[in-house]
Design goal:
GO molecular function: ATP binding; ligase activity; metal ion binding
CATH class of the largest domain: Alpha Beta
Number of strands: 15
Structural class: alpha/beta
CATH topology of the largest domain: Rossmann fold
Shape: globular
Pfam family, one: PylC-like_N
Organism: Parafilimonas terrae
Keywords: ATP-binding, Ligase, Nucleotide-binding
Helix content: 25-40%
Order of helices and strands: EHEEHEHHEHHEHEEHEEEEHEEHHE
Number of domains: 3
InterPro entries: ATP-dep_AA_Ligase, ATP-grasp, PylC_N
Strand content: 25-35%
Length: about 325
């Protein structure tokens, strides 16, 4: 069976590659950057330079690529790729290629942090939040606040405000799709989950994010804190999510509070796999063979530190970005 994993330069793709290649699947890797490390984990002819996820060429290129190489399963691992792929599931299925992605409605909710909070507020406790315009018109500072885009990821355009003057300095953000959230303090946890195609939670493993680098956990440990896991499951059940999801929470003095949801494989998944929940393999076999997924009822409490690992090869094997320009729909083979 042939599996194509995109976002080959990211840790999520590497985690999926390690799991699925070890299980005997034939892995293809794709990324928009010809220097992405994951491209060089697979043989020549199974590496692809892709258009950007926002490009109009992204889906047509993937469709042609998947059809030409008889790809059985496509796994997008970058946030920007999820919606274009989900919106075209029928086109991929028409060429006998299944896709590991949640439904469009769930993705839309997860990608808009305000809508996410609105969707979850009936099922779990949340920190205070509001639309930026509402808060600007009627501010109160019993808490410190974070001003952030409703859409987007990473730390760009995120501001902490502690008083009215700092808030008024951000008045230019009005009408630009921002929101405010209560600034929360406590230990951060990620809960990696597998939800089968029928919506059943088959695995939920929590890990403490002890140290991060560029948003990815580099030092982490698995925990069996029941309250954290039950909270994450309740969050997931508020949405129509499927397959791999990652729920990020902060354990405050008032209990766990939701930070965000990544509706895809996470960059810290290697620790979860080592603990006993091989989520990439569970997802692949549920999708490809419609097999019932055995529930992971227990797992090991282990810790992880990360380090670089080198891959050596002949310089002539570097992919040439100009030669394989994606706009031409020429495949990098």
């Amino acid at each position: 069976m042939n599996i194509l994993i995109t976002g080959a330069g990211g840790p999520a793709a590497i985690c999926a590659y390690k799991s699925l290649s070890a299980a005997g699947y034939n892995i293809f890797m794709g990324d928009m950057d010809p220097m992405s490390a994951g491209l060089y984990l697979v043989p020549k002819g199974q590496q692809f330079i892709l258009p950007a996820g926002k490009s109009e060429m992204f889906v047509p290129f993937l469709l042609e690529l998947c059809q030409k190489h008889n790809i059985d399963l496509l796994i997008p691992t970058c946030d920007v790729e999820l919606m274009p792929v989900a919106n075209n599931i029928e086109a991929f299925e028409a060429i006998d290629c299944k896709v590991l992605v949640s439904p469009v409605d769930a993705l839309e909710t997860c990608q808009d942090k305000y809508l996410l909070m609105e969707a979850c507020k009936k099922n779990v406790q949340l920190g205070d939040y509001d639309l930026f315009e509402n808060f600007l018109a009627n501010p109160h500072f019993n808490n410190n606040w974070i001003v952030k885009p409703r859409n987007g990821s990473g730390s760009r355009d995120i501001f902490k405000v502690t008083n009215r003057e700092e808030l008024e300095n951000l008045a230019h953000l009005e009408g630009k799709n921002f929101m405010v959230q209560e600034f929360l303090e406590g230990k951060e946890y990620s809960i990696d989950m597998m939800i089968d195609k029928n919506g059943k939670v088959c695995a939920a493993v929590a890990r403490e994010r002890m140290r991060t680098d560029s948003g990815v956990a580099v030092t982490s440990k698995v925990t069996k804190k029941k309250e954290i896991i039950e909270y994450a499951i309740a969050v997931a059940e508020s949405l129509n999510l499927r397959f791999a999801i990652n729920v990020q929470v902060i354990d405050t003095e008032n209990g766990p509070m939701l930070l965000e949801i990544n509706p895809r494989f996470s960059g810290g998944l290697s620790l979860i796999i080592a603990a006993g929940a091989d989520i990439p393999l569970m997802c692949a076999e549920n999708i490809l063979f419609n097999r019932p997924v055995a529930i992971v009822a227990d797992y090991k409490e282990i810790a992880m530190v990360r380090y670089f690992q080198e891959k050596f090869f002949d310089p002539s094997l570097f992919l040439n970005e100009e030669e394989h320009a994606p706009e031409t729909l020429v495949l990098a083979v």
